[in-house]
Please model this.
Amino acid sequence: MLNDTPPAVGARRQAKVADLGSTALIGAESAPRRTGTAYCYWDLVPSPFRSLSVAVDGDGRLVEIRFDAHRPEGRRDAKRCEDAAVQLAEYFAGRRRQFDLQLAPIGTDFQLRVWRALCEIPYGAVRNYGDLARAIGQPKASRAVGQANGRNPLPIVIPCHRVIAGDGTIGGFSAGLDIKHRLLALEGVELTL
Model:
């Protein structure tokens, strides 16, 4: 059971680890969250862009995907990361449209709500920040939604690349607009940079 008592004034807020379950069930209410960071295992996964690093926690739940050279703390373990590696390879080859992985992204309650809404965007479709703000019941929170989108620790699997600017342009992407453009093109969406 979650404690719904607001923190005292000046108290530090902690990020939460969400047990979002499988991506197939991500829209459902998640199990109670725990705070803290679990030890992780990571591996490098080939992609059409550059190698990605993927990290899973001790329970095998995906906690991070990175496009940069940063490697998570923990131990390299290809076997523990194999499910994510296989499903990402299938996605890049055009043989997978949905992921079936256990997820445990770390974020605030607001970020977790945004990330759940991202998972509702179908393969090959796009939404704008305002659409997402309305989807989570906060129609005036477009900028905050954009910030939560940019902090998504599981790009591709939680499809933040499917969010574009309100004027129909490509918007931003933490790994760069070229990669976002290529991910959207892979899904059949063509936008100009």
Q: What stands out?
A: The mean pLDDT is 83. The chain has two domains: 16-26+40-102, 109-186. The domain at 109-186 is CATH 1.10.10.10 (Arc Repressor Mutant, subunit A).
